[in-house]
Amino acid sequence: MSLRGGPLARLRVRPLRRWRYPAVLLALLVLIALLLASFVRFAAQVQALRARHATGPGWSFPSRVYADGVQLVAGRPLPLPYLARHLEARRYREVRAPATEPGTWARTAGGVEIALRGFTEAPDPDGCGGPERVRLVLAGGRLVGVERLGGFAGMPPPDLRHPPRLEPVFIAHLDDPQRIRRTWVPLGRIPRVLQQAVVAAEDRRFLRHFGIDLRSNLRALRANVGAGQVRQGGSTITQQLARALFLSPRRTFGRKLEEAVIAVGLELLLSKDQILEMYLNSVYWGQAGGTQIAGVAEAARWYFGVPVDSLKLDQAALLAGMIPAPNVYHPLRNPAGARARRDAVLSDMVETGVLPAATADRAKTHPLGARPGSLPAERFPWYVSAVRDWLGPRLPKGALDHWGLAVLTPLDLAWQEQAELDLPDAVASLEAGLGRRAAPLEGAFVAIEPATGYVRAIVGGREPSLGAFNRATQALRQPGSAIKPVVYAAALDPGRSGPRFTPASTVPDLPREFATPEGPWKPRNDEGDYHDQVTLAKALAKSLNVATANLVEAVGPREVARYAERFGLGAMKPVASIGLGTNEVTLTALTDAYSTFPNGGGRHSATPVRALIDGRGPNRAGDAPEPVRVLPAETAELMTGLLEDVVIFGVSYPLRASYGFTRPVGGKTGTTNDYRDAWFVGFTPDVVAGVWVGWDQPQSLTRPAAETALPVWARVMTDLIGSFPPAPFDERATALAWIDPWTGGRARPDCPSPMRVPFVKGTAPVAMCTRDHSADWARIAAQRLADSLAKVAVDSAARVDSARVDSVAVRE
After folding, report:
1. Surface-to-core class of residue 653, CB atoms within 10 Å of its CB (0-12 exposed, 13-18 middle, 19+ buried)
2. Closest Cα partner for 577 from 592, 564, 596, 593?
3. What is the distance, to the nearest Å, from the Cα of residue 665 to the centroid of all Cα atoms in its chain?
4. Disulfide: which of 414, 533, 564, 658 matches 85 by Cβ 3.0-4.6 Å?
5. Residue 420 and residue 417: Cα distance in Å, rounded?
6. Cβ-proximal residues to 420 (8 Å cutoff; 6+ apart), any chain
7. Contacts 24+ apart (CB under 8 A), 72-76
């Protein structure tokens, strides 16, 4: 039968319009592009997580902070008392020679022998290797010989590319309020038996599936459908990792689907070893008080007190058995349940063929062996707060708490411990003499290495506590006369435009008023003595306020403010009183400013971090920047000599005369109005240190810094560097000359108070002093007579008192 002409003939089959094919193709291409873009974003996110540059619900690593090591290089200063303090601070045990176990040391005829522990916790630029034995020869407060005696069998080899050293020491975690303890450890350090135990217990077909085990998932699906809710997981190790990286722990059907999709994506991007490595570093293993224990490294340390490398078979099986419910199977709270789970895992290992039955049976007879663990002691909160404040603005938000950074600091372990003991004691002694007030007297201390800017010790108050206000780095206070070296350095810099000055140049020192926008300002000298003219050397040594104000006027307040900024003291107001310390600074900034002088005119910004190691290994802190050139080298040397004179002849002379600090040192006190703040910043060639003393709510100390801050500084620094051999300052660019301190001319034999002053070579005065000193000698004679009469009166009063005592004794 023909359809031609029939009813169907009238039906017209319309072909698809031509434009629809490109549209469908375009839609497919867009969909593929979107999927590819999503996968690329997913891959980048996985890479960020793996590098620990991102966080997930169960993927967060606190940063770890380390004190500095002590390099053992021949020629360096290393007195035995200082070395012994470092060994004690690291809990080294003294034994009879030879020292044959890492963490021990012994005295020898010429020095010491040490079994160093080595350092393998982070790729430290200063060296990273296993333990080794060294023999040190010590003489005259120096390390004169180092002999490396080799490593230890069965332990990582020592790093022979770098000098040996006492190892860096963990001092603190930087974490968020959840307080998760998780330390990354590579798969190569995780014992094979632990890897096998976890796979046998959690995911037997881990090596064969592609992220999803359909058999396990179908079994769990039947159970969950029958219960009407999600009760069984059936998740593979890859799915569990997906949950830890991306998803919440809440069990829903939708989450299970997401988990499966992400797991497949992880299998596409990562090898099985990488997945297992990330899984073992993510697993939650229970609570330690208010701290969460996560990752296999912390679990080994918490439950068994051993590094993860040292886990044995039965311990590995116990940890693997705890994974489904670590608080339920806690070996100390539920030993029976924990033992049952451990033995079940050992049986699983036999069934999967990774363990002989006889070996498993022997392991089942072992006691659990768990003991109450201890978290590493958190130490030195003052220093750690400075680290956090320094790193915070330099890192992405959250990096410090979650990226698992290794923060290697220049903290000197022995100095920090000693300073934290000495500062509170010294301030308490001072407080006893001042009389107790409603609030405790406070103090702060900081020590900086001028050649690098490295902060070696920080004490921010009398009572160290986490999160407390750090008076060394955070408190802004007026420095008083401690700012004057900046003014005199600006005046003596030959590169500055304007009038030229040398230490022999003179300025007026008579009472006067200075016009300011706020009205007339009339500074006064503390001791009430004034002079027609005075040299810069004498004005600095005696801390004369009027002379300094006149010098500021000559140089220009704006120029002084510009120099203060170069010294690292921030943007100061260019007012007439800038040279008397009316702007505010922190103790750390002021101490760092003084480091310019012993460092040849260059200044490194004070830094409490020497290296920052992230998950990828490189040092994120980078190399130390070149110092900022603040002064010419010869001007810095000149200022060093003038500040030595402040200690020898000037307002800081009690440091030598009363407190016995006789090694070469330069420095300056600072006292603010009504004695509310007391400062002293002093430096040797190798260290610059500052002290501040005062009340948080300012009130009078009733006495100057020479009687408050200076004895505190002397107490701390004597204990820190007293055993080191004294080192002289560099004096290549300067020479000493005797001058009259009032006229600046070369001193004549009849000058009553000549002063030995450093000058840049070729700039010392040639002309002799022309002043008529008759009145000076008359005044000195009158003063000597007054002093003699006063002494006679005091002696007479003492004899009368003694006679009264003797009379009473006779009557009794």
Report:
1. middle
2. 564
3. 26
4. 414
5. 5
6. 380, 382, 459, 464
7. 72/134, 72/136, 72/143, 72/146, 72/163, 72/164, 72/165, 72/166, 73/143, 73/146, 73/163, 74/143, 74/144, 74/145, 74/146, 75/142, 75/143, 75/144, 76/142, 76/143
List the one residue out of 154, 151, 121 whose CA is nearest residue 134: 151
- pLDDT tens for each residue of 298-351: 999 999 988 898 899 999 999 999 999 999 999 999 999 999 999 999 999 999
Closest CA to 62 of 467, 400, 290, 466: 400
Beta bridge partners of 442: 694
**Could you please report the per-residue DSSP string of 557-580?**
HHHHHHHHHHTT-------GGGGG
CA 533, 539, 543, 547 torsion-angle sign:
positive
Cβ(45)–Cβ(39) below 8 Å: no
Q: What strands, in cross-sheet order, belong to the sheet with 104-107? A: 93-94, 104-107, 111-116, 132-139, 142-150
Q: What is the pLDDT of residues 215-241, one digit of tens each?
A: 766 665 565 555 444 444 568 999 999
State yes or no: cis peptide before 98, omega within 30 of 0.
Answer: yes
CA 464 – CA 441 distance, rounded (Å): 15
b/e burial code for range 410-438 (CB count within 10 A of at least 16 → b):
bbbbbbbbbbbebbbebbeebbeeeeeee
List, in order, residues 6 or more apart from 528 with CB less than 8 Å away: none
> What 3-state DSSP class applies to 139?
strand
- Cβ neighbours of residue 811 under 8 Å, at least 6 residues apart? none
Q: Are 383 and 416 in contact (CB under 8 A)?
A: yes
480 alpha-carbon distance from chain centroid: 28
Distances (CA, A) of 440 to 80, 187, 199, 436: 37, 52, 59, 7
Lowest mean pLDDT among 79-88, 290-299, 616-625: 616-625
Instruction: Name all contacts of 321-327 with Cβ < 8 Å and 24+ positions apart.
Output: 321/201, 321/345, 322/285, 322/286, 323/198, 323/201, 323/202, 323/283, 323/285, 326/284, 326/285, 326/286, 327/286, 327/287
Contact indicator for 589, 482 with CB cutoff of 8 Å: no
Query: Are 316 and 329 spatial neighbours (Cβ–Cβ below 8 Å)?
Result: no
3-class SS shares of the chain: helix, strand, coil, % to 5: 40, 15, 45
| Under 8 Å between Cβ of 596 and 566 | no
Residue 619 DSSP symbol:
B
